[in-house]
Write a structure and sequence with these properties.
- The protein has helices at 6-24, 30-52, 56-60, 70-83, 89-106, 116-127, 133-136, 142-148, 160-179, 199-202, 208-220, 226-238, 242-246; strands at residues 253-256, 259-262.
- By secondary structure, it is an all-alpha fold.
- The protein has three domains: 1-53; 59-190, DNA polymerase, domain 1; 208-262, no CATH class.
- It has a two-stranded antiparallel sheet with strand order 1-2.
- A hairpin with a 2-residue loop joins strand 1 and strand 2 (259-262).
Length: 281
């Protein structure tokens, strides 16, 4: 078997990208495509190097198993997911927030010192975390906020599905740490999802009078943007999700066999449908 040098494998990969780009955009000249692909490759390489700077002891193996600080391993985990395109920009912001909270509540110990007991305590802390913390208590850390609001049951806490989103992110992170030899076993098996009630049990449906009153109030407002007037009506008449409604364009309203339809699709890079987004792992 003939082994390829690193530079040769990179050239093969770059060549594949060029061919794929030419096929996807035949209206762009090949020299232009080559320049674009090379520029993107340089940018991605520089971005990854910036993300990984400062972690040379971890990358070179000089840090012992379990000795790496939790925050350092978090940065490597995030850098890998960003560089490999596993996270959308929105997902990156969300999961970095989850992992930053985890690091704060655990006290940023060496990752090998994180035990099932400490993660059970983390789970209890997340479950009592106030909702909209940054808006409710701007500038106050999670640990201080939990302590300050512990005797105030009337303060809204994170919803069960939000708590479970935190737990899933933490479990994914520690699974990755095991796969990359930072720890031998994941302590995150101690985090069990909390029970989430059915949405129909938590929210009463709108009746006809509610809907009439809502649209009457909406139409009475002055200076509405077009989307403010039309998105609620699209939701009411189609039953689609809010994320699907706001990404519709005029081209998505069309006639099929003489019948007007709304085509909810992901035909462009800016559109996403439920179930096509990346997850934490």
């Amino acid at each position: 078997m003939v082994s390829l040098q690193r530079g040769e494998s990179h050239e093969i990969l770059r060549g594949s990208l060029i061919e794929a780009a030419c096929a996807a955009a035949p209206e762009i000249s090949r020299p232009a495509v080559v320049r674009i692909v090379r520029a993107v490759a340089r940018y991605q390489q520089q971005s990854l190097l910036r993300e990984l700077s400062g972690f040379q002891p971890l990358l070179s193996g000089r840090a012992g198993e379990g000795d790496s600080k939790l925050s350092d391993v978090v940065q490597l985990y995030a850098a890998e997911h960003v560089s490999r395109g596993r996270w959308t920009p929105r997902t990156e912001v969300q999961f970095r927030g989850y992992l930053s909270l985890m690091t704060e509540l655990l006290g940023d110990p060496p990752i090998g010192d994180v035990s099932k007991s400490s993660l059970r305590e983390l789970g209890r802390s997340i479950a009592v975390l106030p909702s909209n913390l940054s808006k409710r208590l701007p500038g106050v850390g999670a640990t201080d906020a939990i302590a300050a609001l512990s005797g105030l049951p009337e303060v809204p806490r994170l919803a069960p599905n939000s708590v479970n989103a935190h737990y899933q992110c933490v479990r994914s992170f520690f699974s990755w740490a095991v796969e990359n030899d930072f720890i031998e076993r994941s302590p995150a098996s101690a985090l069990r999802d909390v029970k989430v009630g059915r949405a129909s049990e938590e929210r009463l449906p709108l009746d006809d009078a509610d809907i009439v009153a809502y649209f009457a109030t909406l139409d009475a407002k002055k200076g509405l943007q077009p989307f403010e007037r039309w998105v609620p009506r699209i939701l009411a008449y189609t039953g689609c999700r809010l994320g699907e409604a706001v990404q519709l364009t005029t081209a998505d309203f069309k006639q099929v066999q003489g019948i007007w339809v709304v085509d909810i699709n992901d035909d462009t890079a800016a559109k996403r449908l439920k179930g096509t987004s990346n997850n934490a792992g």
